[in-house]
Every structure is written in C-alpha cells, then in structure tokens.
Amino acid sequence: MRLRFFVKSHKHVQAMSDKTRSPSIRALTLCPGTRLAFVALMLQRVTESRATFDAMLGERAGKWNEATSSVDTSVVENVERTRRSYEFWKQAESALALLQPLSDATHHVESDDCKSSWVFPLVTALMADCVKWSELAGDLYKEETKHQVIKAVRDRWEGAGLLVALKSDVALFACLVDPNTSPSAGDPRPRQYP
Amino acid sequence: MKNAFFSRDALLAELEAGANESGQAVYEMYCGIAGDSVSYNQAALRCVESVHSKLVIGECVAHTVGLMIEGVSNVAELRAIVERTREVAVFCEESQACAGNV
User: Fold this and answer.
1) Residue A171 contacts by C-beta under 8 Å, 6 or more apart in sequence?
2) Does residue B46 fall inside a structural domain?
3) A116: nearest CA in chain B?
4) Is residue B49 a part of any domain in this protein?
5) What is d(CA A124, CA A22) in angstroms, rounded to the nearest whole number?
6) What is the pLDDT of residues A172-181, one digit of tens each?
7) Which domain holds residue B17?
C-alpha cells in the first residue's frame, strides 16, 4: 500500500490509525496543525506571565542577561521590544478573549458525553461572542480585521463557497427536542445535565 | 474522487461488519455518521447516505470549531500577534534562565 502519511487528530482517528497500521504499511504519523487550541493556551501562558517576564527582563535581571548572552542579539532585542510594547500586551489579551471561547468549545465538543443538541446553542453563542468582541476591541484592531473575524466564524457555520456548513437540520432538531436546551414554557430555567 | 470511493467502501464495510456482528440492520445498530468537512469525506458520506438513507449524516463539530480557530488565527493582524507571542514563548522555552517560570 502506498500510504505515506497518517494524520492523527481526534481520539477516534487515533484509535483507527492504531488499528489500521501494521508493519506492512509504511506510514509516517503526523500530528496536524489543524488542532489549533494550543494558540489560545500559548497566549494565555504568555499574558499570565507578564509580571514574571517583566521581572526577568527588567533592570534587575542580571542572571537573565548572563543566560541569554549566547542568544542572537537581534532575537533578544525583538523580545525586549515586544515586552515593552503596551499595545502588544493589550492586543494579546484581546486576542485571547476571542480565541479562548473557541478553544474551550473544541475541548467541550470533544468530551465523551457531548450531545448533538449542544451544537446549535454553542455555535450561536460563539458567533455572539465574536460580534461582542468586535464591539469591545475598539481601536486595538482595524475594522477590516473585525469583519474578517466574524466572517471566518460565520462562514464555517453557514457555509460559503466550497466551505461545508456546520449548520444543519439535525443540529437544530436535536436542540429543539432536548428538554435541557429547549425547556417548555412552564420550566423556570433550563434543566441541568446530571 | 478516488479518495471518496476509498472512504465510501471503507465506511460501508465498517457499517456492514458492525451490523453483522450484532445481528441487526445497519440503521438499528447505528444512528448516523459524522465526518470531517474535507470534500472527499463529504462525498463519501453522501454515497453512504444514498445506500443507508435512514442514517443521519453530519459534520465533525470539533474539527469545524478547530477550523474556525484556524480561520480567525489567519486574519493578518491576529496572525502577527500570535507570531509575536510565539516568538516570546519560544525564546522563554529555549532559555534555561526562565525554564519553569513562563
């Protein structure tokens, strides 16, 4: 078999790849770049560590300077410029506010007990989040960027051109018939899953 | 389309095998299939739908939300921020001085 790569991502795909691979199939396993939840994690770690970062690169950072003496000067200067940029930290925090809910949603829908009825309210909420983000971002980002962000999410949901829409009758039907996502008129609030 | 036919045959074989194992019809054993939004996967799912019309065919939500993140991250201004953050993260990771701090 002329299989060269086996792309691993979802746990079921991983299980399938383990089942399918055999010594007779020469395949190199790749972890794909489409698993982008790490972007939010990286932004979170860096923005949360700002104080530590300041302490390390600030005036009292003698040991740090010794440790980075072997690193290329231009790299150190770049990082130092980034650290001092007020705009960068604000933009990074804003980007995190946008990407964190998307990242959380990925983990949420990958959980074992995820229901089809969650899809419709989840993605609707994500779109509302993006719209709210574009309103709150103010002057940090250009108007064009804000429109592109909303379009990127909306196109995946509603479909555009060659993009297949995630929005489907199945997701809407599941949402409507699930009492946890569509409570009847008499219920004071949606029921909680045990 | 070659890939679509390969995926279709593999899916149909899996469905039949599962149904035979349990001694039930395919639509009694399975309620549906979800696949990534890649065109040949979708084409394969449509082929399966034409054979087993009672199955619900959907998209992989986790994959699509992942692609949403990719779409958002690829917007030029956000991409620049992510790249700069990555630069900082790589710099810190590679430096022994801040290992364990950042």
Assistant:
1) A116, A117, A119, A120, B58
2) yes
3) B61
4) yes
5) 43
6) 888 888 877 7
7) 2-59
pTM of the full predicted structure? 0.72
pLDDT by residue (tens digit) across A55-72?
776 655 555 666 566 667
Using a CB-CB distance cutoff of 8 angstroms, which residues of chain A are in contact with residue B6? none
Does the CB of B3 have a partner CB in chain A at under 8 Å?
Answer: no
Where in chain A are the domains? Answer: 1-35, 115-194
Residue range A27-53: mean pLDDT, rounded: 70
Q: How far apart are CA A119 and CA A11, in angstroms?
A: 19
Q: Which residues of A touch B55 (CB under 8 A)?
A: none
Spatial separation of the C-alpha atoms in residues B52 and A90, rounded to whole Å:
52
CA distances A178 to A116, A124, A166, A183, Å, are 9, 17, 19, 8
Q: Chain-centre distance of CA B89, in angstroms? A: 28
* Nearest by CB: B73 against A36, A92, A110: A36
User: A29: which 2 tokens?
Assistant: 């396993």
- Is residue B69 domain-resident? no
Pick B89's closest partner by Cβ from A46, A75, A148: A46
Helix (H, G, I), strand (E, B) or coil at B59: strand
- Residues listed for chain B: 102
For residue A41, the 8-state DSSP code is: H
- Across the interface, do B98 and A37 touch by the CB < 8 Å criterion? no
From the CA of A44, how many Å to the nearest CA of chain B? Answer: 10
Q: How many CA atoms lie within 13 A of A114 on its CB side?
A: 18
Structural domain includes residue B41: yes
HSE-up of residue A50 (Cα within 13 Å, Cβ side):
15
Which residues fall within 8 angstroms of residue A191, CB to CB, at 6 or more apart? A179, A180, A183
